[in-house]
Amino acid sequence: MVSISTKGIYGVAAMHALYNSPNAKLMQIKEIAAMTQISHGYLEQILSSLKKSSLVVSIRGVNGGYKLARDAHEILVLDIVEALEGKLFVPSENVGASVVLDSFWADMQEQTRKVFSVKLCDLDKSYQTFFYEI
Amino acid sequence: MVSISTKGIYGVAAMHALYNSPNAKLMQIKEIAAMTQISHGYLEQILSSLKKSSLVVSIRGVNGGYKLARDAHEILVLDIVEALEGKLFVPSENVGASVVLDSFWADMQEQTRKVFSVKLCDLDKSYQTFFYEI
DNA sequence: AAGTAAACATAGTGCTTTACTAAGGTATTA
DNA sequence: TAATACCTTAGTAAAGCACTATGTTTACTT
After folding, report:
1. The model's pTM
2. pLDDT, tens digit, for every residue of A30-71?
3. DSSP per-residue letters across B13-82
4. Distance, angstroms, CA A40 to C1' C18?
5. What does the pLDDT look like over B53-79, one tens digit per residue?
6. Where are the domains of chain B?
7. B13 vs A: CB within 8 A
8. Architecture of domain A6-132
């Protein structure tokens, strides 16, 4: 089954929660976990990865927490998913000696990555209409 | 790593080989395997799945083989991949209580499936230009 | 200074999927 | 009836997934 794993889906949910935090206030893991229903320990790992990819910043100690590392219009869903799951849709390189198929798969990858290049701040909009408007 | 597995890639390669068979002549597994470098036994399973999904037809016994079940402009790459790997990019249902995110992921799925809705007969073309032309 | 609460790090675990191989069964033809 | 092709099922090593568990470090509070 080809799919984004829950890790990527959790990651987007967490980033979405941070984006919706009033006044960009710090959010603690337990707050995000409560909101999103993600296991605390697992969410810790996910936020750790997002931090490594410079998508969030953290403050340690009591009253610590997380916030977005930059403005939401500079963060793509693609960034989040690829930070957690690696590059989206890598075509296997050893498979198929056909140049035609190679370039076909490369193109599919590019198209797919384009689909996921949605800004975090635009996530609430209806993409159906957004995509087709002129 | 989010990716189509080799099974899907093999399937497309096999279907592409059948499409390019002169005069839509029957091709045997060993021919396809030799062309595509796919293991004979594995390819057998893949073609068996493609047959169950009515994408190919087979003839048994000596001089048997496979051919496309219908014209190549009525077969989508999406059909092939989903026959072998299940529905493309299913959003997990239990994850996230957010209606916003639910509809977002549903939309991503629809967009992605659209990207893969390429006709087998169009596989050789350049999709980059194809996609953006008016 | 001590206690507490948060982020951070790493190891382990049960489960599922992947990419096959192996071994035989069944249909058709020569 | 022998050969050859498709067809089916079982098994398996390796990897990935979705966590849990356990502890460490940092910083604020008392």
Report:
1. 0.90
2. 999 999 999 999 999 999 999 999 999 999 999 999 999 999
3. HHHHHHHTSGGG--B-HHHHHHHHT--HHHHHHHHHHHHHTTSEEEE-STT-EEEESS-GGG-BHHHHHH
4. 30
5. 999 999 999 999 999 999 999 999 999
6. 6-132
7. yes
8. Orthogonal Bundle (1.10)
